[in-house]
Amino acid sequence: MRLVQAAKSPAEIVGRDDELELVAGMDVSQRSLTKAARSLRLDEMHERQRRRISLFQGSLVYRDARLTGYDAVCAVEVIEHVDPSRLGALERVLFEFAAPRTVVVTTPNAEYNVRFEQLPAGRYRHGDHRFEWRRDELEAWGAGVSKRYGYSVRFAAIGPVDPALGAPTQLALFTR
Q1: What digits encode the pLDDT tens for the residues 56-89?
Q2: SS (H, E, C) 145-156
Q3: What percent of the chain has pLDDT above 90?
Q4: Element (H, E) at 170
Q5: Which end of the chain is more exposed for a tag (fewer CB within 10 A), N or C?
Q6: In 51-151, at which residue ranges do the beta strands (DSSP E only) sit?
Q7: Which value, to the nearest 10 degrees, does the dihedral of the CA atoms of residues 55, 59, 61, 65 take?
Q8: What are the residues whose beta carbons fall under 8 Å from the beta carbon of 65, sequence distance 6 or more?
Q9: Are the C-beta atoms of 157 and 171 separated by less than 8 Å?
Q10: What domains, with CATH codes, occur in the chain?
């Protein structure tokens, strides 16, 4: 399987790429899963496509056998919703137990928050965020994860890059 980098919709990814055997989505919120199913138009998909999609409720801080066997895991705007005291559990679930070849983690870049005029100083972008990392904090976490679990890591910016602040979103790409 390969990591698909760009598409107009998740349904387009599943529909156009026969190399993707299974695409799964996990969330702690059943409401979010229902919304995802609607957005994907699962009820309108051909059965062959629908069989390749699995949506299920769960959490990345608990070991879950449903997460094993994937070539890639994408934790998109997830990590900042986890209590810092539970990051070790998330690391073990993702990098030790699920242990895919590729892990993509995206998270807000806290340095960029000053560019959001409506965001009061010292506040997070979302009420459920437990933290937001600066670029150096993500890089330090990523380096530690790489060392502990045998991955290499690269970092990238997502969005317009301010020379002093970086981009609004940051990405860590872990590979085995």
Answers
A1: 999 999 999 999 999 999 999 999 999 999 999 9
A2: HHHHHCCEEEEE
A3: 82
A4: strand 169-175
A5: C
A6: 53-57, 72-76, 102-108
A7: -40
A8: none
A9: yes
A10: 1-58 (no CATH), 69-175 (3.40.50.150)
Rounded CA-CA distance 157/130 in Å is: 21
CB 60 within 8 A of CB 75: yes
The Cα–Cα gap between 72 and 8 comes to 20
Q: Are strands 72-76 and 102-108 parallel, antiparallel or unpaired?
A: parallel
Q: Which helix (H) or strand (E) holds 157?
A: strand 152-158
Residue whose C-alpha is closest to residue 124's, from 135, 113, 137, 136: 113
Query: Is the separation of the CB atoms in 56 and 29 below 8 Å?
Result: no
